[in-house]
Amino acid sequence: MDYSKLEAKAAAREQFRGVWAAITTPFTLDLNIDEAGLRQNMRHLTDKLHVDGVFCTGAMGEFWSLTSQERKRIVEIVVEEARGKCRVIAHTGHHAADETVDLTNHAQKAGADYVILMTPYYPFASEEMVYDWFSYVAQRTQIGIWLFDTVFSDRPAMSPELFVRLAEQPNICGAKISRTIEHYVAVQKAVDGALVLSSPAESQFLMMIREHGQRVHQSSASPFLLQTATSQRVRQYAELALDGRLDEAAQVSATLDPLRKVQHKWIMGDYHETGILPIAAIKAWSEMLGMAGGPVRTPLLQMNEERRTAMRAEIESSDLLDS
User: Fold this and answer.
1) Helix (H, G, I), strand (E, B) or coil at 225
2) Cβ(196)–Cβ(215) below 8 Å
3) Number of Cβ within a 10 Å radius of residue 305
4) Rounded to the nearest 10 degrees, what angle do helices 246-254 and 233-242 cross at?
5) Are 231 and 320 in contact (CB under 8 A)?
6) Which pLDDT tens digit goes with each residue over 90-133?
7) Are 91 and 60 contacting, i.e. CB atoms less than 8 angstroms apart?
8) What is the longest distance spanned by two Cα atoms in the chain?
């Protein structure tokens, strides 16, 4: 981090821009962390896809299946590979607040730029309890903190009033809101610029730039599922839109619609129907693009060969692999 605790909000407003990717954790066949594969993936993201930032050890990274030492090691590798190329935000949330503090302070020491904390997911908590938990962590750490309000935590959305209260903490500087657009807008109005906000739906990013002033896609797997070394249309339309060239951005974005339909069917469609994170499918898709994926850890189930073959056929029928 290149700012002080009191400068976290100003730093976030300056540094969160463009396209950030939420990465998976590649595993070897014996379910150990594939460190070489993780480094390979980071170089693909930074040197070929030119992402602006990476979100590691989060929901896409199967954080619940990782030991604290594994989480720390992943952050260290990601920071090493990202240095001088893109920024890093690490998910350091844990159901134990003191463990969250330890993971957060380690991420800062390792060189992460920011951390992000999922809303406490157990036990069920009132808004006052959620406020107390986030405040407890923020008061014991220095690095800039993003709030991650998501259905993954299996609790109601954080109210706009709660965001306002938490924004009073000097190092709480952003919020990734995986809720409805209406809720996003209500939070945006309430915090009045005190927090950087992002909705992680890539298919809505252009609309969010145009209608709600969003400056960063923070973050999803789409930056590496929909792009290749020679075709970076997500980054292209984002840059056009952020430069105010909205009509040109819309033309580029529209060319991704057929591929988005495939992604929705195999990735988000399954999630919306079952509530089960589609990380096995995300890993299988990314492997088709030359990235390291490997198996998922229990309780997630592997993607069977029949579904993998069917998904590959639909991807091959698009223009993605051609690029």
Assistant:
1) helix
2) yes
3) 9
4) 160
5) yes
6) 999 999 999 999 999 999 999 999 999 999 888 888 999 999 99
7) no
8) 53
HEC profile of 263-321:
HHHHHHHHHHHHCCCCHHHHHHHHHHCCCCCCCCCCCCCCCCHHHHHHHHHHHHHCCCC
Sequence-ordered list of residues with C-beta below 8 angstroms from that of 269, at least 6 positions apart, any chain: none
pLDDT digits (tens, 9 = 90+) for 152-183: 766 788 999 999 999 999 999 999 999 999 99
Which of these, 65, 78, 74, lies nearest to 103 by C-alpha position?
Answer: 74
> Which CATH number among 3.30.200.20, 1.10.10.10, 3.90.1150.10, 3.20.20.70 corresponds to the domain 5-246?
3.20.20.70
Quote the tokens at residue 207. Answer: 């609309």
Q: Which residues pair with 84 in a beta bridge?
A: none
Contact by Cβ (8 Å): 279, 268: no
Q: 164 to each of 35, 80, 174, 175, how far by Cα in Å? A: 40, 35, 11, 11
- Do residues 19 and 131 make contact, with C-beta atoms less than 8 angstroms apart? no
Return the pLDDT at 323.
56
- CA–CA gap between residue 248 and residue 228 (Å, rounded): 20
pLDDT of the residue at 312: 94
Q: Locate 70 and state its tokens.
A: 């594994």
Mean pLDDT value across residues 41-47: 98
